[in-house]
């Protein structure tokens, strides 16, 4: 199936936004919102028994981990997240978390045996690229992940 033929995803892509406030259950809410969007965009296959489906599911788990890391970092270091935005095209998914702090995140030196300081290293490993964009008096921290659907279409050709 051509990625352009996917129902629910216009040729120019689709964006979904979730306004955020409060602290209880925030990460779970963001993960559920992301999972629902990825299901609608067919990143989560109906038949999970094929090798291609298993590869898609691994990418979905990576995306959910990235969402968790960005939201957690906004909670711990930037005054809390204000919005989660997902923009999906045929080529990629862009995840953005906005927060009120203008300070860009930077990877810390992490000690392998101790918790903390690993989040941005995970983000660097799992994303195609990541960065920050100024937004009002704060910023958006974003990550991009290549679409597993595009890879599946290319491998079928």
Automatic annotation (TrEMBL):
Q: Which CDD domains match?
A: HATPase_RsbW-like
Q: Which domain of life is it from?
A: Bacteria
Q: Which UniProt keywords apply?
A: ATP-binding, Kinase, Nucleotide-binding, Serine/threonine-protein kinase, Transferase
Histidine kinase/HSP90-like ATPase domain ranges (all copies)? 60-142
Q: Which GO terms describe its molecular function?
A: ATP binding
Give the span(s) annotated as Disordered: 97-118
Composition bias, Low complexity: 106-115
Which Pfam family is an annotated match for this chain, by its short name?
HATPase_c_2
Q: What is this protein called?
A: ATP-binding protein
Source organism: Streptacidiphilus cavernicola
């Amino acid at each position: 199936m051509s990625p352009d033929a996917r129902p629910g995803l216009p040729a120019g892509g689709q964006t979904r936004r979730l306004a955020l406030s409060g602290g209880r259950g925030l990460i779970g809410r963001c993960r559920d919102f992301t999972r629902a969007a990825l299901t609608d965009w067919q990143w989560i296959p109906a038949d999970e028994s094929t090798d291609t489906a298993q590869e898609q599911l691994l990418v979905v788990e990576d995306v959910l981990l990235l969402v968790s890391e960005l939201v957690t970092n906004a909670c711990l270091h930037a005054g809390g997240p204000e919005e989660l935005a997902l923009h999906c095209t045929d080529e990629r998914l862009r995840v953005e978390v906005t927060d009120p702090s203008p300070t860009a995140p930077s990877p810390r030196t992490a000690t392998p045996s101790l918790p903390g300081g690993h989040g941005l290293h995970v983000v660097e490993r799992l994303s195609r690229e990541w960065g920050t964009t100024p937004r009002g008096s704060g910023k958006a921290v974003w990550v991009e992940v290549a679409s597993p659907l595009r890879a599946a279409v290319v491998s079928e050709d």
